[in-house]
Amino acid sequence: MAKYTIGINELKDKSHNLWKSVLAEFIGIFILCFFSCAACTQSNGDLTLISLAFGLSVFMAACTIGHISGCHINPAVTAGLLAAGKISVVRGIFYVISQCAGAVAGVASLKALISDVPGDGPAGLGHTNLKNISEFQGFGFEFFLGFILVLVVFGVTDENKPDSRFLAPLAIGLTVSLGHLGTVTYTGSSMNPARTFGTAFVTGIWENHWVYWAGPILGGVAAALLYVLCFAAPEIESHDLEKYRQVQQTDEKEGLKKYPDLKYIDEE
């Protein structure tokens, strides 16, 4: 039983699901860091542009790799799911390693493509750091950023709320944008340890770095436990589940009537 919690069995999976997921996490956060940090280098202080860039990047990644790895692309999300028993220890470790490597690769690629970095802060490239606040205050901001992000992730991916899954990528992306709009002037609104690790590694600036790991991860774990213990949706009764399936099948049939070519896409 323990090996399934630890996840050793996943290393022997012949379908290579773990390795596909690890690659998906790498690609997802690579794109997040590349495009979002690129937006930071040309924002000229426009916080809305930065907020939208990060939110849209997460939205795009969730739509693209969500079905493969769950699109964590954030050690705080991975830690929350691990604390709630949703993923194995082995998968969690490989995800975090992949996320950090993807973040470094994304920021390094951006730096290689631009000769002059006019971005925010002394290092540009969207590196996060505390601005006119103490480390304790920064920890508090990042704690609540990780908390609200993971709380939303659990809420929209709850298996007993199947309808909310259609909105999951948008809801999570908007939560990231909200976090940036609210706190970007204080901590840079990281809410993602790997994202900050990527810019710190490339720029060589590690000041207050612990804040960006401890804050979001502890906030994410707290949110995960709170949701599982208090807020989780009640289990769907069998007759309700059957009713939901019937409605879903009806919707699919109606869709095929309007767009008959869809059936050929399905068959492929």
Main features:
transport; disordered C terminus; 2 domains; 72% helix; Aquaporin-like; Glycerol uptake facilitator protein; globular; mainly alpha; 0% strand; Aquaporin_transptr
The dominant shape is globular
CATH homology group of the largest domain: Glycerol uptake facilitator protein
Q: Compute the number of strand runs.
A: 0
Derived structural class: mainly alpha
| N-to-C series of helices and strands | HHHHHHHHHHHH
How many discrete structural domains?
Answer: 2
- CATH top level of the largest domain is Mainly Alpha
Q: What is the name of the CATH topology of the largest domain?
A: Glycerol uptake facilitator protein
Number of helices: 12
Could you say what the CATH architecture of the largest domain is? Up-down Bundle
Question: What is this structure's SSE topology?
Answer:
Blueprint: H1 2-6, H2 8-11, H3 17-41, H4 47-69, H5 75-83, H6 89-113, H7 135-156, H8 168-187, H9 193-203, H10 211-231, H11 238-258, H12 262-267
Explain this structure to me?
The C terminus is likely disordered. Helix 5 packs antiparallel against helix 6, helix 6 crosses helix 9 and helix 7 packs parallel to helix 10. With 268 residues, the protein is mostly helical. The two termini are 38 Å apart. It has 2 domains: 234 residues, Glycerol uptake facilitator protein (Up-down Bundle); 31 residues, no CATH class.
